[in-house]
């Protein structure tokens, strides 16, 4: 993407004991009604580590507090181009996994102003179900999820 804003991002994949991953349904404000599922996370702020950004984003986007020591990873790194509100970005995404033994209630009270009304709901997904559904924000998200589940629950890395 020529002229795109480049950013480094921390993404968090909360995983429950059933191997499901908590994702958020969102839309680009420039394309209302075009819905997709995305991992929790966002840009790393100046002075933050990747893990600090992941913990902050987890709290802002879900209301769930996790300790930095609970994050596993990064378990994956991928570059994804995307647009948000008419601005093109290229995001260097660092994915962390975190195990949640309970199925906590998610709330959106900490969303940034631009996210309010554009992050619509949270849902637990298996990688296979998301692959079949076909509404992942990037086509590789189900595979990233599967690798994170394998690493966290099965120790396959």
UniProtKB/TrEMBL annotation:
Which InterPro entries does the record match to this protein? Nudix_hydrolase, NUDIX_hydrolase-like_dom_sf, NUDIX_hydrolase_dom
Pfam families listed in its UniProt record = NUDIX
* Top-level lineage group: Bacteria
Q: Which GO terms describe its molecular function?
A: hydrolase activity
* Keyword annotations: Hydrolase, Magnesium
Keyword Transport present in the record's keywords: the answer is no
Q: Does the keyword Magnesium apply?
A: yes
Q: Which cofactors does it use?
A: Mg(2+)
Q: Where is the Nudix hydrolase domain?
A: 5-153
Write down what this protein is called: NUDIX domain-containing protein
């Amino acid at each position: 993407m020529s002229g795109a804003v480049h950013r480094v991002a921390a993404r968090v994949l909360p995983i429950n004991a059933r191997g499901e991953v908590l994702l958020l349904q969102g839309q680009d404000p420039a394309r209302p009604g075009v819905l997709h599922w995305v991992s929790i996370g966002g840009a790393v702020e100046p002075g933050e580590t990747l893990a600090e950004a992941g913990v902050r984003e987890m709290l802002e986007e879900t209301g769930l507090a996790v300790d930095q020591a609970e994050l596993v990873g990064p378990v994956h790194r991928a570059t994804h181009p995307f647009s948000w509100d008419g601005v093109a970005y290229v995001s260097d995404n660092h994915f962390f996994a975190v195990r949640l033994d309970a199925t906590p209630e998610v709330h959106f009270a900490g969303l940034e102003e631009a996210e309010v009304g554009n992050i619509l709901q949270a849902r637990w997904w298996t990688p296979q179900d998301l692959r079949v559904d076909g509404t992942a924000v990037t086509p590789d998200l189900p595979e990233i999820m599967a690798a994170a589940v394998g690493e966290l629950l099965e120790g396959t890395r």
